[in-house]
Hints:
It is globular and about 65 Å long. The chain is mainly α. The protein starts with a helix and ends in an 8-residue tail after the last helix. It has helices at 5-26, 28-51, 56-60, 64-74, 92-102, 108-135, 137-149, 162-177, 181-191, 199-216, 221-226, 228-233, 235-248, 253-261, 270-283, 295-314, 322-336, 345-350, 353-361, 364-385. Helix 2 packs antiparallel against helix 6, helix 4 (64-74) packs across helix 5 and helix 16 packs antiparallel against helix 17 (322-336). The mean pLDDT is 91.
Amino acid sequence: MALPPAALARTERRRPLARATQALDGARTAVVVYVATRALLVGVAAAVAALEHHSLSSAIGHWDGVWYARLALHGYPAHPVHGPSTLGFLPLFPALIWILMQLGIQSPVLAGALISGVGGLVATILVQRLATGWWGEAAGRRAAVLFCLFPGSVVFSMASSEGLLIPLAAGCILALERRRWLLAGALAGLATATGADALALTVVCAISAAVMVHRHGPRDREALRSMLAPLLSLIGIAAFAIFLWQWTGTPLASLRAQRTGWHERLDPLALLHQGQLFTSQVAHVQSSHLTLDLSPLAALVGAVVLIWGLVLLLRRPRLVSFQAVTWAALVGALAVFSEHVGPNARVLITAFPVVVVFAYRVRGSAYGWLLGANATLLVLMSALTFTGHSLTP
């Protein structure tokens, strides 16, 4: 028997809420693990801060958090700067920090950490939805748990723009898989105003549109709509360039700051140089001064994990979407050739498919050992990241 129009309307209104509730129920394990790991890392940060006689705020605001706080408080300089400056950072994350400060959160570091924490939770749920679509529900849950425990997830407990960039990237990829072109382009556009790595999303959107045009022809309405995604993806970076042109006199002020102030350059031999740097440190270490910069070692190990993860993604059966594989490969390649950063844990969790694929390929007791190893590294590496300069996030 057909429902009356009023009852049918009520049913239709309830369906989005029912779907959202069902999605949250499916992600319950991931949410619990995520919240537990965030509480654990707050404890690690507090312990490290107490041992070093620093504040908790200085621990979670370490590294880039200092610059994002400065940017939220004082804005960009009105002229290009050749040394380290806030011009090397994109505007969306500090803009959200500023908004939260206007709403009553006095500390920019706390505001940034709150954004990262919420963004990490959203990213965890989106990663589980993506992984479930690729490999099924059980593997999706395993992937989300591994995502929470991976050492790079420390960025979700700091004032770090990855806490905003990663959920935007995951949401864009999910939207592309479902052919929601307008949403994908909008998310990518926000991402390109968040971090330089997000330009890889423009390439992913362009490839997705090219595939649609190839399959359906340039006159097909769906193919034409797909072109919205790459066009909209450029809005964030284009708007920032226009602002810089008006504010500093050149649209390239941020690029120049990254090159001259932060030494962000591409070098085909970057990993070789990282290895030479670490070897030189070990050769000159003294028993009275055992502190090492572990970032080169983290980059070398990360390169192995990156290549291993890409191989697993491309092995048969190839179930992961080409959008996700392309995103992971491009982000990884940028890090491999980066003179300064390298494919460390922060980069790997940004290129999240190369991390979560291990949850699908590793089964049984080996998966338990994998989680244990990641949990141990998460605590140890986070402790080094929260203070000092021995390990960059």
